[in-house]
Amino acid sequence: MTDAFLLIGLPYLAVFTCVVGCYYRWRTSRYSYSSLSSQFLENKQLLWGSAPWHIGIIGILLGHAVAFCLPEVWNSLMSQRVVLIIVETIGIALAILSIAGLGVLIFRRLTSARIQAVTSTMDIVVVSLLMIQIILGLLTALQYRWGAAWSTGTATPYLWSLVTLRPDISYVADFPMLIKLHIVLAWVLVLILPFTRLVHLLAVPLEYLFRAPQLVIWNTRRRQENAIVAEIKTESRREFIKAAAGITIAGGLISIGAFDKLLNFFKGTPHDETAEVDILAKKLRRLQQTAEERALELERKKNEYIQIATLSELSPTKGKYFIDYAMNPGLVFKGDNGLPILISAKCTHLGCTVGSEVDGQGRILCPCHVSYFDVKTGKPNDEAPAKLPLRHFSWVLMDENGKIILRQNPGKPVEGEITPEVLARGNIYIVKPHEESA
Predict the structure, then answer these.
(1) Of residues 164, 148, 160, 179, the one with CA closest to residue 78
(2) Burial annotation 178-199 (CB, 10 A radius, 16+ → b, else e)
């Protein structure tokens, strides 16, 4: 219930409040669409805070936007390990730059008497939330590495499900608390945006790009020279803004193709016979999948042992998937001694399903964030984002009459006599955990 509210209810509430609140504020207090610059009150520390903060946060937001709007392109780029390392390094550097810049701005706001006079309680709340959000993002990047790769299979589908009004939190429900806090706080910032100075993000002064230059002439020569220098600087900034706007518009045009699904959703599905047949077929497939899942759950509730394979069909280099008693994926391999090895296929990092192919070092790969797990021990490699090993399952070997021939619990020796005849005709079963069977 909590996840449903925080990951579904809060996003829609935040977006609705943001849209209505921003529109109301524009209609009733248009001139408050400003960050209320304090540069004339204090300029030295502002230079060292504002520039790093804006450079860092704009770079981070652009990275998030590209991953959301063009997930397939982003995913293909992140599949290259060199590109992935470069992007992760740049992201961490931008986060550190943002934290440093925002830290200077917070220090400036708390120590300058002039700025304190125009600082509201909401200003302090906003900068605090922004600092916490950037720190959470940095900790996520450091503790759960390669987020640029696995986010396109988790966070991006979750966001698209919200956009298409088909919310699905299964993509992020198993996230660690740190990542969930990062997502929830982002929605909180969207929620409070109309009531803070952050609303100036929506007030883009496009008319300044086309306004004729203004030249102010002072009485003294020195002031005239200063005015001319200031005008040159202003013109340079204007040209920079024009170039930045051009790049932004070009990027927007490239991203238009990513919104075809959203446009098709609002256009509606054609009400012809073929479309209705397709919709009914999809619904039927979903019902069949649900029925199969419920049948598996019922089978696991009723039985102490569930058959998953025969010993003769196992391979030491390619595992066979099965579903355990917790309805999670597992893999079974043939060990060096001819006996089965049953190991969980759910990665201990973010719950992705690991691959079934065994490499030359006896490891299986989790493709979401590049973690290798040893099949025999379940332990991940030292550089992996995953820190916990994959668990092994208890199993029994039965003959065609249902008699238990061999039995093994994780970390324990095999119980029973191993003979060639047993290895040739045995059927492998997983064993219901004791805490569930009690």
Answers:
(1) 148
(2) ebbbbbbbbbebbbbbbbbbbb
Residue from 306, 301, 304, 362 nearest 333 by CA: 362
Locate tokens 């660690």: which residue? 176
Give the full edge-to-edge strand order of the sheet including 395-398. 305-310, 427-431, 395-398, 404-408
- The pLDDT profile of the chain, 438 residues, written as one tens digit per residue, is 788 888 888 999 999 998 998 888 888 887 777 666 665 555 667 777 788 888 888 899 999 999 888 888 888 888 888 888 898 899 999 999 999 998 988 888 888 777 777 778 888 888 899 999 999 999 988 888 888 888 888 888 889 999 988 888 888 888 888 888 999 999 999 998 888 888 777 766 666 667 677 665 556 666 666 666 666 766 776 777 777 777 777 666 655 554 555 555 555 555 567 777 888 888 888 888 788 878 878 888 888 899 888 888 889 999 999 988 888 899 999 988 888 999 999 998 888 889 889 988 999 998 887 789 999 999 999 888 888 899 999 999 988 888 888 898 888 888 888 777 767 778 899 998 865 433
Residue at token pair 């309680």: 121
Q: Can you tell me the distance from the alpha carbon of 169 to that of 229, in angstroms, rounded to the nearest whole number?
A: 56
* CA–CA dist 155, 183 (Å, integer): 9
CB atoms within 10 A of CB 286: 10
Angle 213-218-220 from CA coordinates, rounded to 5°: 140
Pairing of strands 427-431, 305-310: antiparallel
